[in-house]
Amino acid sequence: MNSVRAMVRDSGHNIDLRSRKILKTLTKKHPSELVLMIGTGVSAAVAPGVPALCSWRCCIEAVIDAAEQLEVLHPGDVTEFRRKARREQDLLVVAHDLIRKMSPRTGDSKPSFFQDCLMEVFENLEDHIQNPAVLESIVSLMDQGAMVLTTNYDNLLEIYGQTMGKPMESLDLNDKVKVLQWARGYNKYGVLHIHGLYTDPCGLVLDPFGYKDVTQDYELMEVLQNLYCTKSFLFLGCGETLQDQIFQALFLYTVQNKMNLEHYMLVLKENEDSFFKLQADLLLNGIKLMSYGSSHDNFPGYVRGLSALICKQKAAGPVAEIRSNPPKRNREENAGNVKKMLKPGD
Q1: Does residue 324 sit in the same domain as residue 275?
Q2: Last residue of a domain, one of 121, 153, 169
Q3: Bigger pLDDT: 153 vs 235
Q4: Is residue 9 over pLDDT 50?
Q5: Which residues, at least 6 apart from 252, have a Cβ–Cβ distance to it below 8 Å?
Q6: Beta bridge partners of residue 15, listed in sequence order
Q7: In sequence order, what are the residues at sequence separation of 6 or more whose Cβ sits closer than 8 angstroms to the Cβ of residue 79?
Q8: Global confidence as pTM
Q9: Could you give the CA distance from residue 164 to residue 143 in angstroms, rounded to a whole number?
Q10: In whole angstroms, how far apart are CA 200 and each of 96, 112, 195, 343?
Q11: 35-85 per-position pLDDT tens digit
């Protein structure tokens, strides 16, 4: 544990980990006990020059800008969508309407011009990597067995991992066979994109109903939920992931006794009252809140130091098995919960 006392140099920022205590229950875990949940905060730290990576709202605004530049939206529609993106609380509605507007008038939701806009927004991502330290830390954890899933549409992690000679693979929930292999630990360098990936816009998901086939697949749902119950999720760069409808559908709605679980989330500590309120709220979901500091600049160095501590741990024993044949009673309970979740109009 000497590295706790060391100075960690990261992309020009020094962080003394002595000033921030790290929960021992996390640092004593072996990487194979962890699932890394990657949010927009990771991409924003790695490629700050790409506005679309900063948040879901920024991504929608970037797509609207691209639609204006490519002249695939009427100027009046551009103005209206910008207004909605600024004011609308439910951005999934805005994104859904935006995709529909740039799709064929056939009732088919498969995007047409939307794909061109996404390719414009995320073009040449590898050229925009400025601070790769966070990605390097994540790949180091993957080397020792940590699993990775993400709500991000970009593939920055895969791009960086490939430059390090790792056989990175992007996965989405439409490919059941590969997802089951990943969840059972057979795809060491697979990255599961639960919202889809920008390179396949037809596979992007905007609401739980878009994955009704997945959420009604008992085998797949049980494997994913057992992953949430048998491993510790480490949320990195996740601002509102617990409010994300797809994440809720896959991991929260049908998992019982969440307070008995042990997950972790790194957050920016801007306000003490807000921080401690959130800390109390997250414990109800079995999530321990940790602050990496009061500045986004602290994030890369903290993640690197944390990764170094965890990578020193030796495996305590065999990794918990993910059950693929759940008891009948559990399957019936999950079926009832999923049907309630997917009621029309919710």
Answers
A1: yes
A2: 121
A3: 235
A4: no
A5: 242, 258, 285
A6: 8
A7: none
A8: 0.81
A9: 11
A10: 16, 11, 11, 27
A11: 999 999 999 999 998 989 988 889 899 999 999 999 999 999 999 999 999
